[in-house]
Amino acid sequence: MSIRVLLADDQQLVRTGVRVLLESQPGIEVVAEASDGQQAVELARQLRPDVCLLDIRMPVMDGVEATRLLAGPGVVDPFAVVVITTFDLDEHVHDALRAGARGFLLKDAGPVLLGQAVHAAAAGDALIAPSVTARLLQTFAAGRHDGAARPPAEPLTPREDDVLLAVARGRTNTEIGDELFISLSTVKTHIASLMAKLGVRNRVEIALWAYESGRLRDGR
């Protein structure tokens, strides 16, 4: 079955271009378009798309607030949200990730990356273009919230700490397994344990916790 996508951007030309790119990829169907955040929230709740692609800067309700309503901590059945922005260091991206977005894309992303982003979000993966996302997290999370993260419910094991730092650096599961010489299933087990101990819901929030707790400083 196709992955059903809701696309929200206040510029019709952008929506049309992104829609064409998305639907050129196999297994993706754009089921609705919205021109502002409020409309996006209403359509998402009505249609229950698999993935919501939201522009950050929209009228009526911006992408950050729309993300919070669709994927925030209080949402029982959160949507898979990926935010779209013009600048990879847009300060609002950090707020959107904190609000529950699973990742972000630049508006000039090509069809292959767009397709990868949608498939990854639908599968529950979080970091899209991990090297860029890691840089953004380092820029906006570390300096502003150093040491402010809630302590884990249980102490992390040394291996969990290794996986934590790898996630924060934007590594994929496969890359983590190769670096630590462990299987893919073991990586997934450690990530699930990290989410439980840190009280987070996805790997974006794992990465944010690593920066906000001061576990990863200055790229180390």
Notes on the structure:
With 220 residues, the protein is of the alpha/beta class. The protein is built from 10 helices and 5 strands; from the N terminus they run E-H-E-H-E-H-E-H-E-H-H-H-H-H-H. It has helices spanning 12-23, 37-47, 63-71, 91-99, 111-122, 130-145, 158-168, 173-180, 184-198, 203-212, and strands at residues 3-8, 28-34, 51-55, 80-85, 103-106. It has a 5-stranded parallel β-sheet with strand order 2-1-3-4-5, with helices on both faces. It is globular, with a radius of gyration of 17 Å.
Outline of this structure?
This protein has 220 residues and is an alpha/beta fold.
CATH topology of the largest domain: Rossmann fold
Measure the end-to-end span.
Answer: 42 Å
Number of domains: 2
Number of helices: 10
CATH class wording of the largest domain: Alpha Beta
Any idea what the CATH superfamily of the largest domain is called? Response regulator
**What is the residue-mean pLDDT, rounded to a whole number?**
85
Question: How would you characterize the largest beta sheet?
Answer: 5 strands, parallel
Radius of gyration, whole Å = 17 Å
Order of helices and strands: EHEHEHEHEHHHHHH
CATH architecture label of the largest domain: 3-Layer(aba) Sandwich
